[in-house]
Design brief:
This protein has 489 residues and is α+β, with helices and mostly antiparallel strands. Helix content is 32%, strand content 28%. The longest helix is centred in the N-terminal third of the chain and has 52 residues. The radius of gyration is 37 Å and the shape is elongated.
Length: 489
């Protein structure tokens, strides 16, 4: 090789870098029609941007390798060696040419590796960009086709397809602004079609603690005035809290908020594993409106804020198999017992519920509640089934409840709530845990709307709901926490 001076060597690396950069940057596209030119220019700009990033990484690596090799060459090339070292090499029969050959091999090997890395990186980025562009375009096409479709079900399906394609594209480029904006627009269209009311703000009222022996599983929540009652089936406790003056949080309470726990004794009754809590309005021979607490051994305790807890007599508790829920209407108490495929109805007396229980269903009703998960009463009886269907009964006879126009069936529902009475207006609400939403129906079973959280952590483990339509408040138990939200208009 031709001898080079120390001043010329850095220029060699500049020429090498220029040659690499010239080789990597693709030649300009030929001129096309004006309508296509902008699209191709945009794609080429994106590719060149990715290529420049790879070339920039390669440039830094080459500069570092080059600096190290220049030092090495300066020390090892014969022209840079002292005469004594050259003489020793000559005496050993080592030629300058063979030394230079190995030096150039040592120099070019990392250069080739870096070039291969840069090329592979370019190919990878190019492939990702191509895939992203295709997915984004497919999503836009699906969106346009859906918007032009007059059939609601087909429009909904098309928008869902577009949303799925955009999610795949965003996995490749999570920060892409165009894809994010398109996803937001499509979700807004779906919300409009599916009658979704988004809830943007939740106030955390309470997180329920585990005990040393049990994990918290809060369930039924009841709000009456400023009193807030929560049943925790995991720890077998009933809690009582008070709302603050603004009604948007709980008061700081002195003392134990546990109203009742398993093992407590009242008169001759020792509280067993808890079953449910229910608010019973005055009616029939029942002259007071209070909270009732039921355990699985057939005990009922009434809570009066002024007099405290006291047991009430109840008849025919031997008829119970495995009831799972209680409800009340006009003083009457109802027990849902799926294993027995029945609902027991207790009428009140001045002493409690010591009259014999009666079967709520008529003999020819053909009722099947063996797979029920919850029930609610507003004069009608609504039974929520595990498969998401809702059975409606009036005076023990079946009444249609079609659940029509719902965008997707209920999935793993956990709770049903009915507002109002037969004498006034009201709605039926369902905590649809499988779909992370709360669904609202009218009493005829027509779908009205659905409530979804803007952030998933507030409805990803729905257990129970309570709706106060007078104050437009929604109370919900999600996981181990009790939340409060304003009911959208």
């Amino acid at each position: 090789p031709t001898s080079t001076t120390a001043k010329e060597r850095p220029k060699i690396w500049t020429r090498v870098y220029s040659a690499i950069r010239s080789a990597l940057v693709p030649p300009p596209e030929p001129d096309l029609e004006q309508a296509e030119k902008w699209e191709e220019e945009e794609e080429r700009f994106s590719l060149i941007t990715g290529l420049k990033d790879a070339a920039e990484s390669a440039r830094h690596a080459l500069i570092q390798v080059g600096q190290a090799l220049i030092v090495l060459l300066t020390r090892m090339l014969p022209e840079a060696e002292p005469k004594q070292r050259a003489k020793r090499r000559k005496a050993k029969g080592i030629s300058a040419g063979s030394t230079n050959t190995w030096l150039w091999i040592a120099l070019l090997t990392p250069v080739l590796i870096i070039l291969l890395f840069a090329f592979a990186r370019y190919q990878y980025e190019h492939s990702r960009q191509t895939q992203f562009t295709q997915l984004l375009q497919a999503a836009l096409d699906a969106k346009a086709s859906a918007e032009a479709n007059p059939v609601t079900t087909e429009k909904r399906a098309g928008l869902h397809e577009a949303l799925t394609l955009l999610d795949e594209a965003l996995q490749l480029k999570p920060e892409n602004e165009e894809a994010l904006l398109e996803r937001q627009a499509i979700q807004a269209q779906l919300d409009d079609i599916n009658l979704v009311s988004r809830i943007f703000y939740f106030s955390e009222l309470k997180e329920f603690p585990d005990t040393q022996s049990a994990k918290s599983q809060p369930g039924t929540v009841i709000v009456h005035g400023i009193d807030v009652y929560v049943l925790d089936l995991g720890t077998n406790r009933v809690y009582k809290y008070l709302l603050n003056q603004a009604g948007d949080g709980l008061q700081d309470m002195e003392g134990d908020p546990v109203l009742l726990r398993k093992g407590d004794q009242h008169d001759q009754v020792v509280v067993d594993e808890l079953l449910d809590i229910v608010w019973v309005e005055a009616g029939g021979e029942r002259g007071t409106s209070n909270l009732l607490i039921l355990d699985k051994k057939g005990h009922i305790l009434e809570y009066d804020p002024w007099t405290g807890l006291k047991p009430l007599p109840i008849a025919d508790d031997s008829m119970w198999h495995k009831p799972i829920a209680a409800a009340a209407y006009y003083g009457n108490l109802y027990l849902l017992d799926p294993p027995a495929n029945r609902i027991l109805k207790y009428q009140p007396t001045s002493r409690g519920y010591d009259l014999p229980a009666i079967d709520y269903f008529k003999e020819d009703a053909g009722a099947n509640v063996s797979n029920a998960v919850d029930m609610a009463i507003d004069g009608n009886v609504y039974v929520l089934q595990a498969d998401g269907t809702i059975s409606k009964y009036l005076s023990g006879a079946a009444v249609p409840f079609p659940q029509g126009n719902l965008d997707e069936p209920l999935k793993a529902p956990t709770c049903i709530f009915a507002s109002g009475t037969l004498e006034d207006s009201g709605y039926v609400y369902v905590a649809d845990a499988g779909n992370q939403r709360i669904v609202q129906f009218n009493r005829d079973g027509e779908f009205i709307r659905q409530f979804r959280s803007q952030e998933p952590e507030y409805m990803d483990n729905l257990r129970s709901i309570f709706v106060d339509e007078a104050t437009r408040k929604l109370y919900l138990v999600n996981g181990s926490k009790l939340y409060l939200a304003n009911l959208p208009e």
